Structures are given as C-alpha cells and as structure tokens.
Amino acid sequence: MSRRVVGNAASMMAVQAGSYLLPLVNIPYLLRVIGPEHYGLIAFSQAVMAYFVTLNDYGFNLSATRELSLCRNDNARRSELYSAVMAIKCGLCLFSFLILCALVRFVPRFHSNGTVFFASFGIVVGTMLFPQWFFQGIEKMYWISMMNLAANLTFTAGIYIFVRHSSDFLIAAVVQAAGKVVAGVLGLIVLFSTEHVRLSVPTVRQLRHRLSDGWHLFLSSAAATLYTSSNAVVLGLVCGMTQVGYFSAAYKIFAAGQGLVSPMCQAVYPHVCALAHRSRELVVGYLRKAMVVIGGITFVGGLMVIALASIIVRVAMGPKYMASVPVLQLMAMTPFACAINNIYGTQGMLNFGMKPQYSRIIVISAFFNSIILIPLCYWFEARGAAASALLTETFVTLTMAWMLYRRGIDLLPRFSDLRENVVSLSTLSLGKVMEG
Predict the structure, then answer these.
(1) Which long-range contacts (CB under 8 A, 24 or more apart) does 379-382 make?
(2) Is residue 412's pLDDT more than 90?
(3) CA atoms within 13 A on the CB side of 254
(4) For helices 241-276 and 334-342, angle between their N-to-C axes, nearest 10 degrees
(5) Which one, of 243, 224, 223, 222, lies nearest residue 232 by Cα?
(6) What whole-number distance in Å separates Cα of residue 57 and Cα of residue 215?
(7) CA 331 to chain centre
(8) CA 195, CA 76: separation in Å to the nearest integer?
(9) Which of the residue ranges 91-95, 139-143, 197-201, 385-389 would you say has the lowest mean pLDDT?
(10) For residues 324, 330, 331 and 333, what is the CA-based torsion angle, rounded to 10 degrees?
(11) pTM of the predicted model, to two decimals?
C-alpha cells in the first residue's frame, strides 16, 4: 500500500477511534448506571436513527467521494459538488425529521419514549453536517480526525459528569447525540478554513445528476442498513429492550474492532478509483494484496475475540451481562466477512462498472436477512440477532465473489505474491504511519 493510503488509513482510524473506542469506555459505566433495559432503549433509538443517517447519506460517501477524487485540484468543481450534495442532504434531513414526528405521534412504542427519539435525532444532524466524505475524497483526513477526536472526548467526559442515576438515560442520549453535532460543526469549520470551498445555489440539472449518480449506491446502502440496524430494531420489537441491551453491548465491542479495520477499506477506496482509470489489471493486483492485509487482520482478530469473549464481557460489562458472551462470539468473525465483501463489492464491483449488480446483491441479502431474522430472534433472542448478522454478511461475501468470478475477475490472492503482501502489511507499522 502507498504511503498516502497508509497515512490516510491511520487518520481514519483516529476518526473511528473517536466513534467506537471512546464510547466503548462508557459501556461499563452506562450499563451499570442506567441498566440493560434503558441502555437497550437508547440502542433501539440509535438503530432507528441509522435508517435516517442512511437516507441522508444517499450513497454520497461512495458516489461523491469517487467524483471528488477525480477533481480534487479543481476548486470550482469541488465547490459545485459540495453545494449540490449538501443541498440534497439538508432536504433529506428535514424529510427524516418529519417522518420521525409521524412515528412518535402514531406508533405507541415511539410515542411512549418520544423524548429519547428526538434527542437521538442529533446523530442524524451531526452526521449530515460532518464532511467526512469530502476529506476522504481528497485524501486529507488528519485535521478532521483531530476534530472528531476532540468532540468525542468532550461527550465521553459528559457521560461521566452528567449521567449519575438510572433516570439519567435521557441525558445519556442527549450527550451522545451532542458529540455528533459538535463533530459536524468542527468539521465544517476545518473545511471552510482550509479547503477554499465556496457555497453556491445548485441548478436542477446538478441536483438531478447527483441523485441519479447515487441512486444505486443508496439502494444498496439502504438495504445494508436494513440487515444491520434492523437486527436491534426487530429484537426490541420481538423480545424487549433488555435483550437489545445484551445485543447492543456486545455489538459495541464488536464495532470497536471493526472500526479499526474499516478505515483501511475507506482509505483504499479513492486510490482504487484512481487505479481503475488506468488499468483493470492494476486494480486486481492491488485488491489481492488488500485481501491478504485486511483479511488477515480481521481473521486473526476474530479468532482472538472468540477465545477471549468471556474475559472481555466480564471486564467491560460485569458478571451480570455474561449472557452477551455467546452473542459476542457469534459476531467475532463478522468483521472478517465485512472486510472481504467490501473488497469484492465496494472496491471491486463499483470500480468494474457493476453498480446495478452490486445493488441487487445487497437488496437480495437484505431480503435474506429479513427471512431469517424474526425466527432467529424469537427462538434464540440476542444470540439469534447475532447469528443473523453473521449469516447475512457471509451470504453477501459469497454472492459477490461468485458474481465477479462469472465476469472473469478473480481477486483471491496468489501464493506467489505472499512475500510482497507481507511487505505491504509491514507498512502499517507505527513508524511508517507517522512518516505518512
């Protein structure tokens, strides 16, 4: 991997550390103070917010990032792209809020906890404002990483300062959402002060083009959200908030590990987009190396979590939450499946002109998850939700690999390349990252 890719991966790991590792510090405290039922309610509301975040993103984290990577040195085009994307995002955010108002008004489970859902909506606003897609596209993540870390440190401290009793669960929801809003505002300050972006009124043609370009990716993102966030939502509706608490506590630990790997995939994406304009062979060779590096890290990490799950849960959550041990073990290999299907799908299919096929696979996988999720939750509760996540990600991986193979594209690494791949892995060392 190139020095720029490694440097950006390190910066994006800092972003993910703020998003996953710092909240992970709060898990033992929150679980003990507000209890699994209230923690489950917060997790349930955040899972619902994930639907709105996906709607607001509209696939721009891939479509706009790819377009920006090709015009990163053209200030006029960058400003035009940013203005059009943000105009759409603002409209979708308002639409999301109106949907939430309708849910709180007419759905009993939402109505009885309306203040928690409205508090959690700050997550949607903050994510909409945060220009991570822009800095990912121009491969400059350092400052935005620092802003995100500062914001997350602030709300982590807020949890310990303001949340003291089980009745403070609403404050916990407000503080967590406030962290996202702070990150979004700080991100905008960095963007406008360093990148010379100028806002303009987008034309109808520009808006139509952005919506059309992101449509297939939005469908796939929406379907992916259905088979990730829906696990917590369906579990809450079928089994209650306590089971959501067990599932979500284990999911936070799982997400912390996945959050350290996904930045590598995100940092690789704009580089692969640039290679795709030169040669398919270059992309195939590069992705075979990525398969060894990223796949190897996630596979070994998954085995370690399976072996240490009991210790992790006991230390992070306490002995009252040992029911989360099998949940975490079932989730342990999910990051490996996610990493491999990211290489096959996001890095491969999208850059080989297979957006419709990519979207269809994700939609079919969401349908697959919807078939198995309810019975698994009914029979096995939180463990069923975890098993559904693992089975669905495995289904996605195998289907994408088969689709690419039919096109004559084989991304499986060659044993003759192992030496070079090991060298690539060594570039992820701390010394190289600091040089990057």
Answers:
(1) 381/235, 381/239, 381/243, 381/246, 382/235, 382/239, 382/243, 382/244, 382/246, 382/247, 382/250, 382/323, 382/324, 382/327
(2) no
(3) 28
(4) 30
(5) 243
(6) 11
(7) 16
(8) 11
(9) 139-143
(10) 150
(11) 0.74
d(CA 332, CA 392) in angstroms, rounded, equals 14
Looking at the chain, how many residues does it have? 436
* CA dist., res. 309 & res. 386, Å (int): 14
Is 144:15 a contact under the CB 8 Å cutoff? Answer: yes
Rounded-to-10 torsion of CA 186, 192, 194, 196: 170
pLDDT value for 154:
75
Cα gap 103→144, rounded to integer Å: 34
In Å, how far are 32, 154, 164, 172, 225 from 161, measured between CA atoms?
15, 11, 8, 10, 33
Instruction: Give the domain range for residue 139.
Output: 3-435
Q: Is 6:435 a contact under the CB 8 Å cutoff?
A: no
Separation between Cα atoms, residue 428 and residue 436, nearest integer Å:
10
Nearest to 389 by CA among 234, 263, 243: 234
Instruction: Please state the domain count of the chain.
Output: 1
Token duo for residue 418: 């192992």
Q: What is the pLDDT of residues 105-139, one digit of tens each?
A: 998 888 888 999 999 999 999 999 998 888 878 77
CA 257 – CA 192 distance, rounded (Å) = 32
Q: How far apart are CA 317 and CA 340, in angstroms?
A: 30
State whether residue 351 is helix, strand or coil. coil
The single residue listed with the structure tokens 């996945």 is 258
Q: Contact, 183 vs 130, CB < 8 A?
A: yes
Secondary structure E strands in 22-89: none
Give the percent of the chain with pLDDT over 90.
30
pLDDT score at 18: 53
Query: For 379, which DSSP code?
Result: H
Q: For the chain, percent helix, then strand, then coil, each to nearest 5? A: 85, 0, 15
Helix extents (H) in 317-354: 325-331, 334-342
Query: Residue 414: what are its φ and ψ, rounded to 5°?
Result: -95, 140
DSSP string, 126-178: HHHH--HHHHHHTT--HHHHHHHHHHHHHHHHHHHHH--SGGGHHHHHHHHHH
